[in-house]
Amino acid sequence: MSNKSVLAIPSLVQELYSIVDRLGELFPGRRFTPDGHLVGSIGEVLAAAGKLQKTGQRPISLYKLTRLMKSVQKSEQLRRSTS
What we know:
By secondary structure, the protein is an all-alpha fold. It has one domain. The longest helix has 24 residues, at 3-26. It has helices at 3-26, 36-48, 62-71. The termini are far apart. The protein is 57% helix and 0% strand.
């Protein structure tokens, strides 16, 4: 697996979510979401390339995480579960 292949993953995932959004527009009331198998396969590819820790998470410093959180618009943030 080449580094070029791994670097293509973010834009491909972005395209995937654009398609999911478009399907949602075409079929209101129907949810289209990437399934666990697809997400798991992407994670396995990243793990094999050494981009993830064994836990499946990418290491990030608290400083970078804080900066990232500030850069995401409120409307784009995931809602916290209250259950």
